[in-house]
Amino acid sequence: MAKVLQPFRLFNATVILPDRLIPGGALDVEDGRLTAVGRLDDLPRWSGATIDANEGFVAPGFVDLHVHGGDNADFMDGTADAFEAVVRAHTRHGTTSIVATSTVARHDQTLTFLENARTLQRRGAEPARGLARTIGAHLYGPYFNEEKVGCHPKDPARPPTPDEYEQYLEFADVMLTATCAPELPGAAGFYRAASARGIRLNAGHSNATWAEMTAAHALGVRHVDHFYCAMSSVSSLRERCGTPMQASMLEFVLDHDDMTTEVIADGRHLSPELLRFVVKWKGAGRTALVTDCSRALDQPPGLYTFGPLDGGETFYNDGGVGLLPDSENLASSVRGMDFMVRHMHQRAGVDLFTAVRMASLTPATILGRQGDVGSLEAGKHADFLILNDQLEIRRVFVGGEEVSVS
Ligand SMILES: [Zn+2]
Ligand SMILES: [Zn+2]
Up-side HSE of residue 6: CA atoms within 13 Å toward CB? Predict the structure, then answer.
């Protein structure tokens, strides 16, 4: 039986909309949905319960389309407990819609990951247990270019074959998005098969040429993972193809208005001016913030495993980022989405409402879920956060129910 939640009005807040702030703002919640959002003075009379936001900011809950782990658990660990631990960790950091993301792994590990994602998606949010919404899965790997595999285990990276991916595509009900390097043999077949099941297509961990991106785009690829990281550049294509120098995935994304991308705004992957540059030239509506976070979220510095405990890659968490041992190479972030939003605003100098939009409405739109989540708008799920003036998270609500943060 569905739980009956008492309607309430939240007031005394600066409400963050995608394009502006509303001081003296309020919002009304009934049956888990927002029914009114605006200046308190403009809202209808209210005689029910109220919550005082204590002059804090109220932001939409964040949407993370690329996240691997947290609280020393990884979505690839293969157990329901580990899966929930990751969701709980990111819920605490303000992510209320989570796309569980796999890593390069063995076939059976990927299948188990998809099973776990399906189970949690079907169960829905459980705020009383600290769990936000798992809105789907991102098949991320194994179809990466070995040369651009980054911190993922190298050995199991492989080109797509129908025998294998047809089993993954049985999970089309939960697979929101899938990444494949366009230059791999068999990539076109994979894109066609995934697209036929309504799955969104990404290019990533790739050294693709302009021509390979053009072919991928014609098959429906519209998103490139973590801009500037593990993707082709003019210099990487010069090594691959010689001269004349060629335009890369980077130029392809900037040149095509229907392509979207994402950035890891943890302050360690990309400098502030590079983050500002992407927002200026690609636009905040087409650039999502992602955490790409590993299991080292909220864990002390030390050695951890990226991906499954069984067969994943060892990396070092220095307290601010993951690093591959014996090299300068980065191995994913160790931060939650609240950190990324603060960094975009406080260090990269992006407007607060723009930084929040990049963590909410933009990823929701990339995933096609903007009708339900991603902004504070009447009709959408009442997924929202109360932040203090330092943009630290004070309270998290999912479907109008407060998340108990342990
Ligand atoms: Zn990656
Ligand atoms: Zn990743």
Answer: 9
